[in-house]
């Protein structure tokens, strides 16, 4: 029973649709050439119809499961409709309507390059949806890696000059001045270190000599036999004199007046006399 009602309902729907088509009259077909249209309102209507068809096909081409051939056909149909839309827009402008071409934007890739210039089918051909991932098309949207040319050993040797080995580093005189100042500071520091170590050594020798003299003095008569009636300098005074002579010799040989002044200032800071 339900099946018969469905059949009757479908027949009624077809009947009502047929009556509505009769009232509307025969379905008007879009002119093949835009130049055949003489009415501005009609031209705008056909342009809107083309835009709706483009939207439907663009939604359909997003499906990657349609197959390569169907995707290519859809992309060609969309580009054909886009060209037809351009014809109608020019016709609308000729009939005194608005200029839609000024508001249309260019289709670009992720780097701002116009896609029409990257394709091989002329200016204005665009790929939509799954068509961008087709073999031979995907490479158009990928940036080519920058090739770095490797230099040969011969080319690298040709670029080597005396500056590479530092042969001309001293020509401007800057390096010599820097090295001279650094050498003076290092020399002064070495002299101060040597004097400090020498003083410690002399103190150690003096302490040893004092202990030896104390041991000999406690030996009774043998210690009293060796009495010096001539005033002679002791071991410490002799070593201090030798140290002073060596120091003066080093300073006269290596140090300048400016360096001596720096040394005096350093000694005053270190509380040395």
TrEMBL record:
Keywords: Nucleus. This is Pre-mRNA-splicing factor ISY1-like protein. It comes from Astrephomene gubernaculifera. Belongs to the ISY1 family. The keyword Heme does not apply. It is found in: Nucleus. Residues 202-221 are annotated as: Disordered. PANTHER family: PRE-MRNA-SPLICING FACTOR ISY1. GO terms for biological process: generation of catalytic spliceosome for second transesterification step. GO terms for cellular component: nucleus. Gene3D superfamilies: Helix hairpin bin. Pfam families: Isy1. SUPFAM superfamilies: ISY1 domain-like (SSF140102).
């Amino acid at each position: 029973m339900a099946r018969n009602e469905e059949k009757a309902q479908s027949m009624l729907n077809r009947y009502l649709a047929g009556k509505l088509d009769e009232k509307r009259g025969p379905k008007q077909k879009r002119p093949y050439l835009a130049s055949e249209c003489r009415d501005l309102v009609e031209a705008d209507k056909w342009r809107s119809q083309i835009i709706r068809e483009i939207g439907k096909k663009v939604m359909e081409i997003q499906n990657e499961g349609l197959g390569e051939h169907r995707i290519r056909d859809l992309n060609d149909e969309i580009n054909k409709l886009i060209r037809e839309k351009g014809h109608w827009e020019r016709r609308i402008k000729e009939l005194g309507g608005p200029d839609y071409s000024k508001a249309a934007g260019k289709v670009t890739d992720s780097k701002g390059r116009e896609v029409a210039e990257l394709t091989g089918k002329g200016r204005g051909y665009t790929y939509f949806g799954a068509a961008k991932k087709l073999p031979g098309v995907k490479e158009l949207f990928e940036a080519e890696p920058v090739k770095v040319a490797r230099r040969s050993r011969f080319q690298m040797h040709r670029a080597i000059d005396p500056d590479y080995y530092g042969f001309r580093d001293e020509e401007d005189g800057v390096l010599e001045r820097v090295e001279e100042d650094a050498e003076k500071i290092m020399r002064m520091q070495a002299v101060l270190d040597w004097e400090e170590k020498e003083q410690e050594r002399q103190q150690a020798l003096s302490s040893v000599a004092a202990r030896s003299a104390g041991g000999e003095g406690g030996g009774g008569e043998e210690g009293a036999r060796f009495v010096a009636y001539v005033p002679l300098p002791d071991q410490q005074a002799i070593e201090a004199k030798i140290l002073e002579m060596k120091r003066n010799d080093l300073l006269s040989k290596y140090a300048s007046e400016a360096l001596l002044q720096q040394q005096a200032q350093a000694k005053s800071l270190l509380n040395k006399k």
